[in-house]
Amino acid sequence: MSRESADARGKRAAGVIAVLQRTYPDAYCELNHANPLELLIATILSAQCTDKRANLVTAELFKRYRTARDFAEAPLADLEQAVKSTGFYRNKAKNIQACCRKLVELHGGEVPRTMAELTALDGAGRKTANVVLGNAFGINVGVVVDTHVSRLSQRLGLTRATTPERIEQDLMKLVPQPQWAQFSHWLIWHGRRRCDARKPDCAGCELKAWCPRVGVKA
User: Fold this and answer.
1) pTM (2 decimals)?
2) Active-site residue, 122 included
3) Structure letter (DSSP) for residue 178
């Protein structure tokens, strides 16, 4: 990727946002949830796992465990069995239980609404906190950077960074804050439906006019 001026990168970002907004006007978080606690648990389970698999697991999990106290007091072996198919299940079950114990002890069983409080919970890093804050509470404090957001933001020339933290910082400078949560959904939807990791559909891509791989308007 050639170096661009801040103005050129800003123009590219604005073009990308306009196209994504038109293409995916109804994009949303595809992790099934009915409340902030369910979204928090689902996001922890989705690490190194597809949303589709996580949704299959949580469909039964959330019938069995309905509150933070339910998760906190569950036999760990039972919780491990319930989340086993998501991979890394021992770690995930341990984190979910420790997380929910803190929710009960420190927050009355409710999911907190700040980055600092969320990232203090077991299994909840900045990405998880951004997912919960942006989708459960409508609070835009950052941009969710998953594998799709990372791949597409690099391909589209919106960042030269390679770590999630630095990619997020670059995107926060280019995307208006009210759109931070939605921008992640747009990129994730595009990554799943058009810009695949191995075989991107460049010929049919709605963003090809703005993509350095195909054609450049910026």
Assistant:
1) 0.94
2) no
3) G
Q: What is the dihedral of CA 168, 173, 179, 185, to 10 degrees?
A: -30
CA-nearest of 130, 55, 43 to 92 is 43
Query: Has 146 been annotated as catalytic?
Result: yes
Instruction: Residue 208: count other Cβ atoms within 10 Å of its Cβ.
Output: 18
Percent pLDDT > 70 in the chain is 97
Residue 104 corresponds to which amino acid?
V
What distance in Å separates the CA atoms of residue 81 and residue 115, rounded to the nearest whole number? 30
Which of the residues 127, 173, 196, 199 is marked catalytic?
A: 127
Residue 214 has pLDDT above 80, yes or no: no
Marked catalytic residue, from 51, 146, 170, 208: 146
Helix 126-136 and helix 180-193, axial crossing angle in degrees, nearest 10: 110
Neighbours of 165 (CB within 10 A): 11
Neighbours of 88 (CB within 10 A): 14
Residues 135-175 pLDDT 10s: 999 999 999 999 999 999 999 999 999 999 999 999 999 99
Tokens of 177: 């804050």
